[in-house]
Specification:
Length: 329
């Protein structure tokens, strides 16, 4: 296998995990020597699943499925998180750069439409190297970066040579809601700058590109916003913010699939229920009034935990039998 370019060539520091500043928390943890960052992770990536995934937007999943690699750890603390097993629970297998590259090639062999890196950027330098290595070994698929939107511009730009499609959330325009629900009062401003950087990266690469035969996105940005019950004002303001930054340079995915987790159900209040039809209709009409030309929306009855895949290390350990959580593969 050919040598990989050093991280610093892509805009990362020489030792990116020694005093971590890869995400907006800039926690400074020495992840390279066993300390865990705010994300809950050390330096070596943990992955919880690598498999075809059919529940993304049509330009991502298509008919054959997106090749999704779910990483453990998260830089947010969303009270309504559906992926708590891996976001804060620490489940996953440690994987080397070489194994990550091989996982991508295996997904390509299964007919994946793309490689979908889910919550990966707290491991950005390693993931970037794995993509480069996989490409040297024959990977031809577009790379999708599936993120909560809370990212540094510098990390986005450093990944721009390996990411083709950006799939960020834009959760909040309301700083108070962002503080209350995700422990990130600066989320609106951080996410706005990150989205602008993603759009710039795509524009420099030649702009949005979709396969005319399959409808699959080869390059571009799809911004997701999940409606939260009782937070309609935040949704309308978030749509205003997204439109102001992106206009029709990005697709919009407006989701009503919010499903209360156990903690939210026990706490009661708005977050213990689903989004109402009226809330969703108002949001859709607002997006349409703003001028969005490409809106992905969900029909009724999407509230379901079935959108959360089984985090059981499928596809991570490879052909060998699954190894215990935490073992290197």
């Amino acid at each position: 296998m050919a040598a990989i370019s050093p991280f610093c060539s892509a805009g990362f520091v020489d030792a990116p995990y020694d005093a971590c500043a890869l995400c907006p928390r800039r926690c400074g943890a020495d992840r390279a020597h066993g300390k865990k960052g705010f994300c809950g992770m050390g330096a070596r990536p943990l992955a919880a699943r690598s498999a075809l995934h059919f529940w993304e937007e049509p330009p991502i999943s298509g008919e054959c499925g997106s090749g999704a690699v779910f990483f453990s750890g998260c830089t947010l603390r969303c009270v309504f998180c559906q992926n708590h097993e891996i976001s804060t629970g620490g489940f996953g297998l440690e994987v080397t750069t070489g194994r990550l590259a091989q996982m991508m090639l295996e997904l390509q062999g299964q007919g994946a439409a793309n490689i979908n890196l889910v919550t990966a950027l707290h491991f950005a330098p390693t993931v970037r190297d794995a993509v480069l290595l996989a490409r040297e070994e024959g990977l031809r698929l577009p790379i999708v970066c599936n993120t909560g939107g809370y990212e540094l511009e510098s990390t986005v730009r450093a990944m721009s040579d390996v990411v083709d499609v950006w799939l960020p959330d834009f959760k909040y325009a309301d700083a108070a809601a962002a503080r209350e629900l995700s422990c990130a009062a600066d989320y609106p401003e951080v996410a706005a700058r990150a989205l602008a950087a993603m759009l710039e990266c795509v524009a420099r690469a030649g702009g949005r590109r979709v396969d005319p035969e399959t409808g699959l996105m080869k390059r571009g940005v799809i911004v997701r916003h999940l409606l939260l019950p009782g937070y309609l004002r935040n949704t309308l303001d978030a749509l205003d913010r997204i439109w102001g930054i992106a206009g029709n340079d990005a697709d919009l995915s407006l989701m009503n699939q919010y499903t209360p987790n156990e903690a939210c159900r026990e706490a009661g209040g708005d977050l213990s229920r689903a989004v109402s039809d009226d809330e969703y209709e108002i949001a859709l009409c607002h997006a349409d009034d703003l001028g969005f030309e490409r809106i992905w929306w969900q029909e009724g009855g999407t509230v379901s935990e079935s959108f959360v895949p089984a985090f059981d290390a499928t596809g991570v350990a490879g052909p060998a039998a699954a190894r215990p959580s935490g073992q290197v593969v």
